[in-house]
Design a protein that fits this description.
Blueprint: H1 6-16, H2 32-47, E1 48-49, E2 53-55, E3 64-65, H3 68-85, H4 90-100, H5 117-133, H6 136-150, E4 175-177, H7 178-195, H8 198-214, E5 216-217, E6 222-223, E7 226-229, E8 234-237, H9 243-260, H10 263-275, H11 297-308, H12 312-325, H13 350-366, E9 382-388, E10 393-408, E11 419-422, E12 425-426, E13 444-465, E14 480-486
Antiparallel strand pairs: 1-2, 2-3, 4-7, 5-6, 7-8, 9-14, 10-13, 10-14, 11-12, 11-13
Length: 487
Amino acid sequence: MQLGRGAARIAACVALLTLVTAPPALAAPTTLGALGEGAMTTLRARLLVDQGRWSLCARTACGTADSDWGADSLTGVLTLRWRATHAPVLVPFARALEHAAPRYPVCRGPGCPGWSDVPLWDAVAALQLYEVTGDTVALDLARAAYASVAQSGRYAHGACPEIDYQRPFAEGGGLKTLETDANRVLAGALLAQATGSAADLADALRHYAAIRRWFFDRTTGLYTVYVFDDGRHCRALPHRFFASVNGIMIDAGRVLAHLTGQRAYGHDARATAHALELLEDARGIFTDLQAENDVVEPLVRAMDGLARAGDAHARAWLIRNARAAAQARGNDGEYGRFFDGPPPPGAVTAWQTNGGLALAVAAAALAPAASVGGDATWARASGRVLSLDHVPATLTFTGSGIALLGTLGEQCCEAGRAALTIDGRPTVDATGIWQNKSSASRALPRTILFAWRWPRRGKHVLTFVADAPNAKEGGTFLHVTEALIAP
């Protein structure tokens, strides 16, 4: 871990003296219906650019994309709106996205480049576009993207070959991520649903069983995201509970139950949806402690699917979280990652904002006339300049909530995190603050790294500690520069 940043750190702290007050939030719409309309305005006016590509950072220049999990999560918001409204105005946008989407060949040799999760994220996104347009081009895109992994033979190796490596032939440290396998199950199930393919359904069922063996945490009822396979042994990294993969597995279970008539898949889906309570803050609001390589839109979509099937728990989850997230909405309509946190003061990326946008769209469809409420707690927050740059470290404060800020990707763009306990108890998701992971591949100052709220004001202690290093998250890093403390 590097300390002693000298003059640059001093200058940054001086600059922060004028920036520690909470940023003003856009006046919150009075109903969930209005919140959903605002989300679509933001999505189309600020994030969807010409020729079917998404802006990955609306407030700063970090490029555009038509592929992979950040862009695909925004496609998910658009198609979630279609699910609710079937508004014809959305069809041209969907067609622009499907025509700009990448085309995948099947490549079998050891020299083939590529990541296994990327085409499978894209396969699911193409199938969502197919729901909107009904175009065979979207179905063909999904089929090719899915086959580029399922038929390649590049990823099913190691000591547990029934789950796929993220990189071909175990390149990149032997990492296997549920982002690959969960999307493979969902894409296979959706292809089977659209085409009647027995082979795709069989592949989905095989991988579902493998996921339950290798990634499922039976103590919590949730799915961890990483397994390391060194060719001799497979070892899950425990308690890394991505919102995305848990949402995808909920959705996959619901679709498989429909296709097979086997209630066990639906039971699994509902059980995981209920287990998400373990990832809530003290006010009962979902808190995604993962780094910027996670996206929350797939979880919102999954809960929306359950709610539309009559699940009262999922419906309440969506409405409760959407009401809270209204306060995490910035002046430009973009949302921060933390639904119970303040509006984002710095750059907002596609990986951060997709969840709040999706929540607004889903809740608007379920309860358009429901009031949003007037919670202005973060607008009254006080600021504190910090320099937490080592572990172990403690931060003691009195308030009803806290948000910690720093530069995301300060040592860009992957390794470096710190584990975290709240009032002496570790969080169920053990990620802590994975500060150096920036999916935008650049340093982003004044990013909200952590936010948490309680029902009432009190004294609280956050403790930052080192955790065992691993090949994906790296070793220890922490540099929190600012705190916003809610009264």
